[in-house]
Amino acid sequence: MSDRTIYIEPLTPDAFAPFGQVIQTSGAHHYPINTGKTERFHDLAKVELGGVHARPLISIFRGQPYALPLSLPLVERHPLGSQAFYPIGEAHWLVIVAEDQSGTPINIRAFLPGPSQGVNIAMNTWHGVLTTLDKETDFLVVDRGGDGNNLEEFPLDPPFLVTHRERGA
Ligand SMILES: NC(=O)N[C@@H](O)C(=O)O
Ligand code: NI
């Protein structure tokens, strides 16, 4: 396929490290609280809040499903803060991110989170918008509010195509 095809790959903390953190209990520092009735999986991701009057926002994004193969017409980034997504309930979704080269996204990658995985996309990191598959899905989102413009978009013309690699390919 063309060099504008992005093949979906599994989400792992190491693979995602250049773009932020994977939010998961596996491998996390954890300890009992509340007289042992609760286990705290502690400090899973780095919330970044930049700019003037920055404050953390907690929202719920209700995503409508996209079909695969996916046409990707743009990526965006938030220069003033990180953005975390954690699915509420079972989810089938993609996390699309890219490196930056002098203001241009390069090496776009599409990750498939496993069950009980979320992500925290680091401040100023190129990413696709919330991309849920199969069904309408809610996500808890932690990102940045405050003064200033916190959204930069980059059109991909022509769009990229996001798909699974053919079995055996
Ligand atoms: N625009 C907005 O709040 N959502 C996007 O940033 C996104 O990453 O989905
Ligand atoms: Ni975003």
Tell me about this structure.
The chain is mainly β and about 170 residues long. It has a single domain (about 5-165), classed as Jelly Rolls. The protein is about 0% helix and about 55% strand. The protein contains 1 helix and 15 strands. The strands form 3 sheets. Strands 1, 6, 7, 9, 10, 12, 13 and 15 form an 8-stranded mixed sheet that branches. A hairpin with a 2-residue loop joins strand 9 (about 95-100) and strand 10. The longest helix has 4 residues, at about 15. The chain is globular, with a radius of gyration of 17 Å. The mean pLDDT is about 95. The site of nickel (II) ion has 4 residues, from loops. Pathway: Nitrogen metabolism; (S)-allantoin degradation. It catalyses: (S)-ureidoglycolate = urea + glyoxylate. This is Ureidoglycolate lyase. Its EC number is 4.3.2.3.
